[in-house]
Amino acid sequence: MPEYYRHPLMKKLDVTELITVHYFKYSRDFSVPGEAHDFYELVFADSGRVEITNGTDKYTINQGQAFLHLPNVFHNIRACEVFSNIIIATFQTADPLPPQLFNKILTVPEVGNGLLSEIVSEAANTFTEPLDIVEQFKMTLRDDMRSDALQIIKGNLEALLIYLIRENAADPNGSDNHDTKTKRERIAAQIEAYLRENLCGKLSLAAAADALGYSVPYLKKVFPGGIAARHRELKIEKAKEWIAEGRMNLVGISEALSFSGPQHFSAAFRKAVNMSPSEFKRSVRINKLL
Q1: pLDDT tens digits for 80-116?
Q2: Is the terminal CB of the chain with fewer CB neighbours within 10 Å at N or C?
Q3: Which residues, at least 6 apart from 258, have a Cβ–Cβ distance to it below 8 Å?
């Protein structure tokens, strides 16, 4: 019988304790006083935009970005005049996490979005409390929870942290591909600003490329999430604000945001928010966090 070589499976990091998992839907003026605690806190912007205080520094994280708070550092969060969906996970590890994860906005790779979704989904089926309680010191396990639920959360969280380390690690020469990455981030920020400035118009990639001074293929390369998709997301964010404020009716919002008609707007809104505009308006009245 041949002798097979066995590779020892080394553990890169070990999440030893899970404190909370939250999925918040913040109103445009949401804020909390802040706190400090002796475990890590990961904040991810699933949509919208929030301002983070970390010690004496402030950071703004946009959709798809994350921030990791060190233990015992004062921090808080507030919405930046837009409705925002935020994932927060608090946990402890056996060994300290590497320094490149802290005091900076973290880039989350595409695989990280799936891992975060799995963490939230599993947590919703594991704990008795809803995931949007602001001040919560203990999450209670469901009597009918699956026996492997916490291990799935642990595995996904560990994988997420490893991908964050990979994505945000410096190269051996310490350059962190600075020039290329900085240029890409700068152009992506220009695209985001252009989309916000032209929120009420119809998007033309050719016109955007011409206005920004780049080719259409290059814009697609530096904005892999999809320029048209991001423009629709921003339109829906603005529509949610106007609906919550009661500023316009359905027809007015549809016209102001250059949808082809109220039915088109309603279909796009439902696809993005999983409820109709009228259902969203009712939910705002009963949910203080929306």
Answers
A1: 888 899 999 999 999 999 988 999 999 888 899 999 9
A2: N
A3: 200, 201, 202
Residue with tokens 């919703």: 124
| 13 contacts 158 by C-beta, under 8 angstroms | yes
- Mean pLDDT, to the nearest integer, of 170-177? 46
Q: Write down the pTM of the prediction.
A: 0.64
**C-alpha span between 215 and 266 (Å, rounded):** 33
CA–CA gap between residue 5 and residue 13 (Å, rounded): 24
The structure tokens 């995931």 sit at 131
Contact yes or no for 27/73 (Cβ under 8 A)? no
pLDDT, mean of residues 152-169: 92
Can you say how many angstroms the Cα of residue 163 is from the centroid of all Cα atoms in its chain?
A: 15
Q: Residue 288's Cα: distance from chain center in Å?
A: 20
